[in-house]
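Hello support,

Our group uses your service weekly, and this is the first time we've seen a run hang past the timeout. The protein is OmpH family outer membrane protein. I'm not sure whether the cause is the sequence or the server load. Input pasted verbatim:
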Amino acid sequence: MKRFFTIAIIGLSTTLLVASCGDKAAKTADTEDVKPVEKKQMGDGTTGIAMAFYYQDSIATQFGFYKEIDSMIRVKEMNFQQELEGKYRAYQAYEADIQKKMQNNEITGYQIEEIQQAAMQKQQSIQQFEQQRGAALQQESMKYQTALMNKIAEAGKEFSDKKEIDLLFFYQKGGQITFINNAYDVTDEFIKYLNKRETELMSGFEEDVKALDGVDLK
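Update from on-call engineer: The timeout came from a worker crash unrelated to the input. Re-ran successfully.
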């Protein structure tokens, strides 16, 4: 079955500034320097924008929440495949048993029509299961994909504001972008920010997924 959990997240960025306040003896807070991305001249040279990019594949392998959702979908897909294969094996065993009985003359001519109808019903049942359950699993995967994309996009907007980034791209091999200078790479900083906010991003996630019920995600 095709995978539907490839996520293209657009508009994300880097760097978190945490300021400690209150009684320093009671608590401490991590602080990170905010270093805005240098603005590059574009067009006629009268205006400039700050650009950056991240490697999309790195999000899938290094962001904990992403990996957790992906693993959950993989398990559901595997369970579906195993159940479908079990139904096919059961039907093959049924066919083999009928064939054996026919060879041993254990089936009369009056029973053949009934057996053919039963075989057709079993085939239709398997096809219906494959189509309906497969479609439902695809829709579920797309809902999780969309909800996760929305969560990361929300965090990415806040991240971009802190980093003062105007334009952020994702990069992957075979994508629309042929080349980006590594000087614009903010992947590590972005992933660090996402993982630091993982608990917050997970909050209300299932509710976000349910809210997509009935939404056309194609």
